[in-house]
Amino acid sequence: MTRRSIILIGFIILKFALQSILISPEYELQRDEYLHLDQAHHLAWGYLSVPPVTSWISYLISISGNTIFLIKFFPALFGALTIWVVWKTIEELNGNLFALILGATCVLFSVLLRLNTLYQPNSLDVLCWTTLYFCIIKYINSEKQKWLFAGAMVFALGFLNKYNIVFLILGFFPAILITQQRKLLTQKQFYLAILLGLLFILPNLLWQYNNNFPIIHHMKELSNKQLVNVDRWGFLRSQLLFFTGSLFVIVAGLYALLFYKPFQKYRSFFWTIIFTLSIYIYFKAKDYYAIGLYPVYIAFGSVFLSNILRRYLRPLAVLIPVLFFIPMYQVSFPNKSPEYILMHEHKYKQLGLLRWEDGKDHPLPQDYADMLGWKELAHKVDSIYSGLSEPDQTLVLCDNYGQAGAINYYTKKGIKASSFSADYINWFNLDRQYTNLIRVKNYKDRDDELKVSSPYFHTSLVADSITNQYAREYGTTIFVFTGAKIDIRKRIINEITAVKNEH
After folding, report:
1. What is residue 283's predicted lDDT score, i.e. its pLDDT?
2. Is this model's pTM higher than 0.90 or not?
3. Which one of 158, 211, 426, 490 has the fewest CB atoms closer than 10 angstroms to its CB?
4. What is the DSSP string of 433-465?
5. Which is more confidently placed, 57 or 238?
6. pLDDT at residue 286, as a whole number
7. Residue ranges of the domains in the chain?
8. Distance between CA atoms of 406 and 380, rounded to whole angstroms?
């Protein structure tokens, strides 16, 4: 085993070790993770929320025990593979050992540590961006057609994981038009590669077509409820924070793409970052959508710096990302208790970490508040469910996908909670007659529930609520209705039809 291989393995081991200590045990899974895990029980070529790849990974997790370790393993694995791809990119750019160590350090001690704590499509998305850029570099160097086809397959995997990778293409296409790489458009194999990529994503495109393109509704809803609160200057500030300790390397990479002669053939990458960020800013995208842009520029910067830095400055260059990580560790990860965060609120507020999707500041960062209260909810629903005379004829109906997913993950009673939210609207069991209803209602919408639903049942009561004051679901109330006077199944069908027509 070579010296380089041993060092790379060391970085990979360190990556997994760091990921294992970044979440305090008092935090549970995050809201989105429960939805993604539940998709394993409803395999399809598409979902209202995400493309299908996450469901495939969830299925592997499900048949392997559905443990927290496995759930957290996959995003950490994708982060480790991102380090590996950057390492291979630096080798392709003829970087020496110092360049490899600098690049791996910059990627390791970055926002990816935060991103890789959550089981979401984002970790694989960054890996696919980085790998696709690697394939482009390989093609530029070798002009071997296999790298076009490899890139097409990486794009297809990225597309089936998260549609965000389309922005990579939107940013790169105009960049090749204004550089010497436009000769690619005259290559027959280029169009064959595009055809191959389309062939791989066709099942998802057909699913979108057969379901009236729910991605369009999802984007409209996202724009109206979340992106409307995005501050464009805030987006740009976040880009500086994501790789703060590596910013000098990224800037060096951009400089080298313009003025360093060995990188002249990669000039399209300089324009790519400008076009891609401009598109994101125009659409008021969430700041983390752009994270996949930066690892390849770390590769360029590391190689350039390895050729211009004096030997005595090299250790300092490697140390800078580590030094910047130390204060990040204190505030950027869910490794501190809610009580600690409240006591040091000013630190989190100054960094904008308390600002939620609604554009307002809250006591905890949104992801942290979304990682509390779920076990409490599931255990209370389990207890109530067990106390009913006909539990198998009970519908558990939730207000949002996080509630339904958490109940389904933690339940000991085999409950299959449902919701009209996200993908759950397609997962109702309509083959069963229901006589009882357990209604999980958000705090803000709970006041009228008894008044609205009680006339349709013989008995009704407020059974319990979430009491964890730090949870985003704090105050969420559990109502119990028994002895239905109506056909609940028919009401569900009518409600599903109304929701889908509205969308």
Report:
1. 82
2. yes
3. 490
4. ---EEEEEE-GGG-TTHHHHHGGGEEEEEEEEE
5. 57
6. 84
7. 3-331, 338-369, 374-502
8. 12
Phi, psi of 447 (to 5 degrees): -60, -35
Residue type, 242: F
For residue 185, give the H/E element and its range: none
Q: What would the two tokens of residue 74 be?
A: 């996959």
| Residue 28 near residue 122 (C-beta atoms within 8 A) | no
Burial class of residue 219 (count of CB atoms within 10 Å of its CB; 0-12, 13-18, 19+): middle
Taking CB atoms within 8 Å and a gap of at least 24, the contacts of 102-105 are 102/249, 102/302, 102/305, 102/306, 102/314, 102/317, 102/318, 103/249, 103/298, 103/299, 103/302, 103/303, 104/7, 104/8, 104/11, 105/11, 105/318, 105/321, 105/322
Bridge partners, 484 (sequence order): 457
Tell me the per-residue pLDDT of 70-113, one tens digit each, with 9 for 90 and over. 999 999 999 999 999 999 999 999 999 999 999 999 999 999 99
Nearest to 456 by CA among 479, 488, 486: 486
Query: Are 301 and 273 within 8 A, CB to CB?
Result: no
**pLDDT, position 218:** 64
